Amino acid sequence: MLVLPDRIRDATIEALELLASRSDMPQDAVMDLRVAAGMLAYGRHLTTEGNAIIRQRCGELAGLLTVLIGQTSDVGLKASVAALCAEAVNMAEAAPVVADLPLAFDSLLRRFDAMAAKARDGGVADQALFSGIAASLMEWQVAANALGQVPAGAAAAEGKGGGVRIEDMQTLLRGRFNDESLTVSEWTILPGGFGKETCLFRTDGANGRVDLVMRRDVDASLITGVDCHEVRQEYPLLKSLFEKGFPVPESLFLERASATVPGPDFIIMRRMPGKVEGDMFGGEGKLAKTLQTELARVTARLHQLPPLHDLGEGTPEFDPVLWQMSTADCTRHYINAWYDLYLKKSHMPIPAVHGMVDWLLAHVPASDDRPTVVHGDIGMHNLLFDAGRLSSVLDWEFAHIGDPAEDLGIIYTVMLNQLDWDEFIAEYCGSGGLMPDMSRVRYYEIWMNLRNLMIASIALDQFASGHLKHVRYGVFATRFIPHYIERVTTLIRQWAI
């Protein structure tokens, strides 16, 4: 149930006032206003309506738990379920407006998920009962999405220099490259990013003209502890891939806790030739055959890289132990790591997430393939094409050790309408990739949407609490969260068909 607290409304009003006070409002600031207006649809009046639905769901959950009490044979589990059932009954009878009811319901479902994990280990009968409850939770969530979906667009671009003073960057680079004549020009911030700030710029100096890129953490790290979401984690991976000849930008240096350029950590890398042909939702029209072939070959090449032992034990995201696991165990480990992160991080309550995770853990696909490097976000927004060749694979913040079918599932999710899938897979296999079972590919399509739903929930809470400043994060409520909930639920419904 997505019911947003008053702090979301207050943060949005503040953003509107800030935009209204700007004398140099750019043309595309109207997109910010649309996001803010969409957020206002989740005003106080929805708290009453939303809580009423939560109370109804608690009553239904109590009924399902009552059935479970009568059918489970585990004495300890029976007592735990009974206690949870009593709490659900109490919540079903709560007063019409209780400010923290959505959070309380989310907490209730977290404990339910812990019981579901125990049931999975206890026997098939208990697992089937819990799976039925998990499915019900997802159906409830889809029905609840109608509580305020409002179209919203991307945010306006930042100011000219973003959070970096160009003269400070110039001073830093003069010292790094030992060139007092070096100048920085053509500073351009790429709009629309959520996880990183990316700036393109040019330097002129004793070594001639060089095109560079700054990739910088945002002020509040949304995701820590899994993958490579901070540049300090991404940097050694990029260095290793570049040294092995894989098409990634050459990273020149990592700057941490800089005294010259205050703010979050960043990487400076060489700018690769080419252009991005689409966005995170794909692109327009069919991908040219040459580009499709390039994508298949590079993906196969990625999955044939040897284990990256050169990263060492000091890189938890690429723990050497994971290379020895089966792909199924890697997947199980990875999903649990994300779910643990979701539970630890403050997030907007979306109780269906618990049922979705439970479903995924109960359906982890088996495979004889060895674990490989997984990019985790291969799509048109992270590929540079130059003269028909794939010149660079960008943005490795979701990289990890896992099932190669995960990357194929992500490509299938975001690029299916642009590819001839059979031809793409044939080229992938012809270039050394292993043919995956199609159900395995579809499994990771479900996973990608759920992972993005958890990120959106965390990001929205950080926006509401003021840790993420830009109003673009409000779009998670009106566009991304409803989309991901609907998509995951639809795919799970279709799984057995």
Proportion of residues in β-strands: 5-15%
Largest sheet: 5 strands, antiparallel
CATH class of the largest domain: Alpha Beta
For CATH, the homologous superfamily of the largest domain is named as Aminoglycoside phosphotransferase (APH), C-terminal lobe
Number of helices: 15
CATH architectural label of the largest domain: Alpha-Beta Complex
Adjacency order of strands in the biggest sheet: 1-2-3-5-4
What's the CATH topology name of the largest domain? Aminoglycoside 3'-phosphotransferase, Chain: A, domain 2
Total number of domains: 3
Through-space gap between termini = 27 Å
Order of SSEs, N→C?
HHHHHHHEEEHEEHHHEEEEHHHH
Description:
By secondary structure, the chain is α+β, with helices and mostly antiparallel strands. The protein folds into 3 domains: 44-144, no CATH class; 166-270, 2-Layer Sandwich (Phosphorylase Kinase, domain 1); 289-494, Aminoglycoside phosphotransferase (APH), C-terminal lobe (Aminoglycoside 3'-phosphotransferase, Chain: A, domain 2). Helices cover 51% and strands 10% of the residues. It has helices at residues 6-20, 29-40, 44-71, 75-92, 101-122, 124-144, 166-176, 231-243, 289-303, 327-344, 352-362, 404-415, 421-430, 438-464, 475-494; strands at 183-189, 196-205, 208-217, 251-255, 266-270, 372-374, 383-386, 389-393, 400-402. The protein has a 5-stranded antiparallel sheet, with helices on both faces. A two-stranded antiparallel sheet has the order 6-9. Strand 1 (183-189) and strand 2 form a beta hairpin. The longest helix has 28 residues, at 44-71. It is globular. Mean pLDDT is 79; it is low at 41-46 and 146-161.
